[in-house]
Specification:
The protein contains 12 helices and 14 strands. By secondary structure, the chain is α/β, with parallel strands linked by helices.
Length: 336
């Protein structure tokens, strides 16, 4: 079977949580284990803003929610906040040096900003912090773990959000699903169970697949296809669904990822492409991929992380990648 198989975990309503006595807004599990109550987010783009808004809407509220941002970006966020689906949210903003350890730290920056983000989030990482990267690509967890330890990092991807960002404003019609967990998930570990409870309380669609490494590669395959081809053709999701040219080029790029994945021991198949089309069919036809939005706004793209990574792995493992080489040449000079 292709796609992302999901476990079905049965939990009581609200994930088995109830309000902790005498602590407004704090939830404690029925087994006495305190839930996640403080969240830091580094990266206030489409994903960071969308999920920040969902966390801020929680009732009872979290004990603490904040963005980490420096300089002019931090000042603008502090002054203007973020607008999500037309509603303004003033989420507290702290500079990197003013952060303090949180229960969960979400990393939602662009790949080329990761090294700076890893440095900027140092004060927000404590002994009990779980770090969740919602970035594109297949290696951000390892890069973060090399600094803070893999024992603090959970694997995660979002699949299916159709967010469009203009400045500090984000709109979406489909929130997608956050897939997270350890590398392998025969059962839920303690921290994965805590994340499940948090996301359930926030009303964020989520799942814990048995194999997160394969899930990362599935999302990588999707991004290499749809992000890059949409950016080259200037195509929204509606065009990507219906244009024979767009579909053919997207599938060819994705099949090169399948070949590279096989060379490193990860099995992807044609069934995975079929599953992607089912996801694509649910997205807003007028929505645009993040790379197309970057190209249109003149921003730097993540082509090095997509085609660049495929080409590099292909050369190392003797796998031809002519489609991605063509996409790389086309996209490398676009944006700043």
């Amino acid at each position: 079977m292709g796609g992302i198989p999901e476990f079905v975990f049965t939990f009581p309503p609200r994930g088995g949580y109830y309000p902790a006595p005498g602590r407004k807004g704090c939830f404690r599990r029925k087994d006495g284990m305190k839930g996640m109550e403080s969240i830091g987010i580094i990266g206030a783009g489409a994903l960071g803003a969308a999920y920040g808004a969902m966390f801020l809407e929680m009732d009872p509220p979290l004990e603490r929610l904040f963005f980490i941002a420096a300089g002019e970006r931090g000042e603008r966020l502090r002054r203007e906040g973020v607008a999500v689906n037309g509603k303004r949210y003033l989420i507290p903003v702290v500079p990197p040096e003013g952060a303090s350890p949180s229960d969960l730290l979400i990393v939602a920056v662009k790949y080329y900003d990761l090294k700076r983000a890893v440095s900027d989030m140092a004060q927000a990482v404590g002994p009990g912090t779980t770090i969740m990267s919602l970035m594109n690509g297949i290696d951000s967890e390892e890069l973060i773990g090399s600094v803070y330890g893999m024992e603090r990092v959970v694997y995660a991807v979002n699949l299916g959000i159709d967010a469009v960002r203009e400045g500090n404003a984000v709109r979406y019609t489909t929130p997608g699903t956050v897939y997270f967990g350890e590398a392998k998930n025969p059962t839920m570990t303690r921290r994965v169970e805590l994340l499940h409870g948090l996301f359930e309380r926030a009303g964020i669609p989520h799942a814990v697949p048995p194999d997160m490494i394969r899930t990362l590669w599935f999302k990588f395959m999707v991004n290499v296809g749809v992000n890059q081809v949409s950016a080259v053709l200037g195509a929204n999701y509606g065009v990507m669904r219906t244009s024979p040219r767009a579909r053919s080029l997207m599938e060819a790029a994705m099949r090169e990822v399948m070949a590279v994945a096989g060379a490193v021991g990860v099995h992807l198949s044609e069934d995975d492409i079929d599953q992607w089309y089912r996801v694509l069919g649910r997205l807003d036809a007028d929505g645009k991929t993040s790379m197309l939005q970057d190209v249109e706004a003149g921003r730097r793209t993540e082509v090095e992380m997509f085609a660049g990574k495929v080409i590099d792995l292909g050369r190392r493992h003797g796998v031809p990648t002519p489609v991605n080489e063509g996409l790389y040449a086309e996209l490398r000079g676009r944006g700043r």
